[in-house]
Amino acid sequence: MPEDELSRSSHSNPGKSLANGIKTNPASSSPKSNLSVPMGPPVYVDLAYIPNHCSGKNTDPEFFKRVRASYYVVSGNDAANGEPSRAVLDALLEGKSQWGENLQVTLIPTHDTEVTREWYQQTHEKQQELNIMVLASSSTVVMQDESFPACKIEF
């Protein structure tokens, strides 16, 4: 659209403007609406790492509705920062309950934390109902001066 037509269209339609070729209404815009992701079909993957060390800052039920994995890795081990977040683990249950298909899901915590233990015990029945298995491992990898729990995953 030529610049003079763009100018005329904004004058004839007060309160609306074009942003990237799309009509917008600045009065109804909010910072959250600019960040929203358009809805689309779910994405199926073999393995997904739960973002931000399983912190509640970036992950909600919508993540689990849209990113459908056979395996989810939970790496949080910082209780002071809410990692892993109980809300995110609960979001997995909520999101998976809306899949409409009962695919097997394996949750792989990289650390044995109080949060994951309590969540596992308190929601075990729901996990079974949703076909979610929590993988526990007593294996330990030792590298130089550091050791950490490990899980073997085969595809």
Automatic annotation (TrEMBL):
One of its GO terms (molecular function) is actin binding. Residues 22-36 have a biased composition (Polar residues). Gene3D superfamilies: Ribonuclease Z/Hydroxyacylglutathione hydrolase-like (3.60.15.10). GO terms for biological process: axonogenesis; dendrite development; microtubule cytoskeleton organization; regulation of microtubule depolymerization. Residues 1-37 are annotated as: Disordered. It comes from the Eukaryota. One of its GO terms (cellular component) is dendrite. InterPro entries: MAP1, RibonucZ/Hydroxyglut_hydro. This is MAP1A protein.
